[in-house]
Hints:
Layout: E1 20-25, H1 29-51, H2 55-58, H3 62-88, E2 90-94, E3 97-103, E4 109-115, E5 119-125, H4 129-134, E6 136-143, E7 149-155, H5 157-172, H6 179-190
Antiparallel strand pairs: 1-2, 2-3, 3-4, 5-6, 6-7
Helix pairs in contact: 1-3
Amino acid sequence: MPNMTEYVPDFIGQRDGEQVEIVLFKHWLLIAGPIIKALAIILVSFVVPIWLHWSAWIFSYGFTTAIYYLWMVFWIGYMIYAYVGWYRDRFIITSERIIDIDQRGLFSRKVSEIELTKVQNITHSVSGVWATMLNFGTVTIQSAGANDLTLDQVADPAGVQEDITTLIKTVTAEKPVTAEDLINLIQHKRA
């Protein structure tokens, strides 16, 4: 699975010493649909007036020209809106926690997180023909509390589950006690 840290090296709310391990976006198919739809409508809006010889009529009157240009601007804006929503809706997995940034429109977002040390169970599911063929699905992360985190529509959900599990094992692994730690412990008990 590709490590996408080059896109978001730092983020708002990042803790001192916290490293971004993986940044995941929703699958590209979710953005391809709206962009293909908008491009098809724009293409048809160019071709049909030329084919039916409506171009002279559309551009003869200020009102029809304005409507035509507003129609084009609307669909270009629709593509930009869809892309910005897809790009800003992401999942950040750091050395300490998993963060779900759920972009809801241009000016609204919901951020949820789970500490890696509190994760109890991770499952993934792939359902549907397109999801199976293109290998995308949902990863559900259950924590000690009642708040579960769902990473929807991510590419390679089995790989994401494996990467998160490996990261959790690394974070929760007990570090070996060094001689210096033992000396400090003995000195603090004597004092």
